[in-house]
Amino acid sequence: MATNEEVVRNVDAEAYDPDKPQQYGEAFPPLASAPLFGAGPKLAHPAVAMEKTIWSNKMTMKTSTCTQVFTVPMEERRFKEFNEQSFGDETDQAKICKEIMARNNVSIEMSCAKDQSLTVVIHGKDQHVMKARREIVGRLQTQANTLLKIPREHHRFILGKSGKKLQDLELATQTKITIPRPEENSDMIKITGTKEGIDKAKHEIQITSDEQAKLAFERLPVPKVYHPFICGPKNENIKKWIEETGAKIHMPPPSVMKDEIVVTGEVDGVLKCKANIMKIYEEKKRKCQTVSVEVRKSQHKYIIGPRGNGVHEILAATGVSVEVPPVDSSLETITLRGEQDKLGPALTMVYSKANSVVFAEVKAQTWLHKYVIGRQGANVRKITEQFSKVHIEFTDGADKIVVEGPPEEVESAVKELEAAVKDLQSRMDFTEVNIDQRFHKHIIGKSGQNITRIKNATGVSIKIPSDTEHSNIIRIEGEPSGVIKAKEELMEMAQRMENEKSRDILIEQRFHRSIIGARGENIREIRDRFNQVQITFPDPGKKSDIVTLRGPKTDVDKCFKHLTQVQQDMVASNYQAPVHIFKDFHKNIIGKGGATIRKIREETNTRIDLPSEDNESDVILITGKKADVEAARAQIETIQKDLANIKEAVVTIPHKLHNSIIGAKGRLIRSIMEECGGVIIRFPTEGNVSDKVIIRGPTADVENAKTQLMELATEKQQSSFTAEVRAKPEYHRFLIGRGGTNIRKVREKTGARVIFPSSEDQEQELISIIGKKESVDMAKIELEGLIKNLDNIVEGEMNVDPKHHRHFVARRGEVLRHIAEQYGGVTVSFPRSGVKSDRVVIKGSKDCVEGAKKRIQEIVNDLDSQVTMDCVILQQHHRTVMGTRGSNVQEITRTYDVGIKFPERPVANGDKVVTENHKDGGGMVNGEVNGETPAPETPAPETPAPDQSPKKNDIIVITGKLENCEQAKEALLTLVPIVDEMTIRYDFHRFIIGQQGKDVRRMMKEHDVNISIPPASEHCETVKVTGPPANVRRAIAALSDRCDELEREMEERELKSFQLTIEVESSLHPKIIGRRGAVISKIRKDHDVIIQFPNREEDAQNTITITGYEKDTQAAKDDILKIVQEYEEMVTVECRVDHRVHPRIIGQRGRNIRKLMDQFKVDMRFPRTDTDDPDVIFITGAEEAVEDCQDHLLNIEEEFLQDVIDQEAMQQLTRPPSKQGGGGRRNPEPPQGFLVANGPWDSVPDTTSTEEFPSFGAVTAPNPGRAWGPTPFGKR
């Protein structure tokens, strides 16, 4: 038996108790602490420890984020919500925290302790955390305020620069500090925040004020003229006093005319500085006198010296202050101030410094300056280094170099410069070349290649003006020989570019791709060969044969010749000849299996294309070289000749008649061929001058065609005699006459045809006459007589009233130019402006002069017969009448040959508008307006009332012939806008306007009217259309058509809005919808209907609504009912399966259940989680399929439950024996999870402890005794 001293150990203490929770120290054993240097009995080697410390300090990086934790006591909380459960509740303080988090980009966590104090943790960037904390304290913690009296002169030190110091203080103390404005005249500073923050802020502010209270501030009134004596030479006095006293002395700069000196700093220092300053001031005020001297303004800067050193030297040497007038002043008087006996030496120094620098000029042309300076200033630097006190100035545009400095050095520098200039003049020259600016970029070349090559070859400098200078002058500078050579090369380039020409070559478009080659290889070779020539092919879509060559004349000609040869080679190898073979014989040409045609192709090396069977053409096209094509054609024609009674006849017709017999586009010869049973008539090819024409076909048809062809040739030969006459191109217009009257007379008189050259013909003087021989001879005599008369130059005179002269010479002599073109280039001279004469001189051939006289007289008669007519249209409609940019008026003036003058627009305050085109005060003429025509306004009546005279601004003046003026007036009046109204249903308005007004704008633009639709708020159905009457009528018709269209669309919508409802059990709705809506989508698409199912909150859960055409809705209803009927025939069985098996049946993402439903063709529904009976599964489908599916589910359940039973038995075997009641079994209790006792969460955290809540932004020395956290076995 144990004694009292013995401790009896309980055996249960040695046994494992699963129900007893582990201690925190057992569950989470503490980590071993790293020993610190010098701590503990086992010390690391000092060197090793020191090395670790050095490296750890070197690699330490401060985090960019930080965390702050602070507590708001319960009594200071603004929101005392004691029933809150977590931060997630939408309480007032939670909303405030969310706003602060979003605004400052930080994370905030709050927790409420048992004593109802609020702990806030803020994490984020340092600056953002400070701002967020200030906002939280201001909005979640009750605020107090206090007033602190601080002298006003200390306020600026509390604010700091730009208020930065005050902002930092507010962030640090979490308070709001209000400092009075200067105009408020108050010393009180208001501090608002928590009590702790207010105390901190008061402390900091008071410290700043106390520091400033120790300082003094003095403003000394000392006249500006005595400041140099106080400062001393180079501010020696000021520097000395600052070093001795530590005070700050603020002297106004020389440019500021202020008579005060400010001294700040410690009181003793300020007083000492003040005494020194006032002592000097009183002494100088008593002893100083002044003397004034006149010194040239240009010499002042030498007296002052660099950075004022000259004045300081005089002051240091003599004690005299030198006052020099400002640079912007024109005064030349310099004042010396100092003691009487020292003014003389000072004056001597002033004159010495003034005369220490002289000026000299070296004559040198501007273009030589850069060569005198040298590359990077090397030449002039040698001179300035040799004569360090000399300043050399080069001025743009001045032919001189200014040298400034001491007399002896200036003289030497001038000699150096003159020698340099003389040397440059002896070996340098320049010239200027006038080359058109459009050639400059070509002279420069790509990336400056051309100009660089010339510079390198000649060693000259070439200056080409920029495009903005608009100058043609290119300047060349350098050695004379190089300048001459460069000039010649530039002139040669310019001449070559001036000689550039453009030439077109006709190349069939089918050859373009071959000439260009694959990926442009062929054309690249040609361009490399003729690199100065630009070759431009037409766009393939234009189907043009013109290829343009541009470049130097010789190169263009060479390239033209080369491309012509290339084309000829291609034409030679692509010669085409059509062969007319009767359609019935095409199969014989092809042969069995294509043998015949293949043989001909191989023997002649040609391509033979036959028309398709459904093509009625009988033409076989042969392509290849000419000789090969002729051989193939002969073989094919021989085949036809052997197969049929084909005769071939040869007729001789002069070659010059071939084109006239063929006719335009072959019409004449085609008519003969068709008339003679389809014979084939073949003329010689182009370029062949043979007279033989071959006729092939049946014998009778050939003879008939031969007869007709010979008759036509005889007729053409008799009427195809040709003669030629030469006349100057300027005579052609006169020979033709106005409207062709002259040449028509010649044709009618002689019966011959006269052909003048076109603008594309090379022989511009050659006139051809065609017809019978006697007619041609007669026409030739007539034309030669007219030309002879034109060659006789005469001078004629006529009188034209001076009032009409302006009409002829206006618009740069347009009327005179037309007369000269029309009448053989006659010269018409009117008197000069200012000469009062009506004499007009006409020079030219006699007939041309007479014709010009008649024409001028006709124009004068028209001008005399012109009348002026007024057309009254209200001024507000003038812009509408003019049209866009005056298009309407320009059309009227062109159609009726009249002049139309609009009055000037009225301007406010009576100002007159003078446009650039009408400076003479006239209005806008002939529709010459600038700008768009605005939408017309609602017009008033077209003319004023009968008893009211029209306003001047409403009168449009029309000038011209009477009948033309009347027609023009009618045309103008038809353009006057009118207003017409029509009624359109209110609900149509938005459709007429269109999206963002697009439709109505299109209609207004299309009909040139303004359509005014009333605002929607007025519910008015009247629409106004404004514009010219014809346009208004068209617009109203268009609106009516649009309304009819909308009516039809509305009827269509009403028909399509038929609704049909059917009642279907809501449990069947998913079946009708189908998987992912497949079934219902197909019904909607098949019948073009809208099918709507009820929402869950609706009462009628069984109603399905179908919208569409009536017949379509009925068809959709039938489809739905058919589906319902199929499902109603199915059976539904309840299958009880343990709910623990349901996840296995469903499978991952429903894979297993979909597989089972597809396998047994059934539908299965599982119970909800909140249902009373979670084991029931509903199976729907055919009876047999449902039974099979039910058996399968029960088998799965049986297998699963067997596994569960086996697992539970194994768990029972592994359970420890019960400690209750003699080893009896206890009722099982639900598991409680993993339990740990005495964890740190069981007690309120000490947020002020730096050990438990270490700072994340700095290194905290850990407790060397143990790691952070509880000790083993839960002891703290």
From TrEMBL:
Give UniProt keywords alphabetically.
Answer: Coiled coil, Cytoplasm, Repeat, RNA-binding
Q: Where is the K Homology domain?
A: 142-210, 214-282, 287-355, 356-422, 427-495, 499-568, 573-641, 645-714, 719-788, 792-861, 865-977, 978-1044, 1056-1125, 1129-1198
The subcellular location is: Cytoplasm
Residue stretches in coiled coil: 1036-1063
- Stored Gene3D superfamilies: K Homology domain, type 1 (3.30.1370.10)
Q: Where is the composition biased (Basic and acidic residues)?
A: 1-20
Q: Where is this region: Disordered?
A: 1-22, 915-952, 1213-1276
Annotated GO MF terms: mRNA binding
Q: What is this protein called?
A: Vigilin
**Compositionally biased spans, kind Low complexity:** 926-935
Question: Per the annotation, which location comes first and is thus the protein's main one?
Answer: cytoplasm
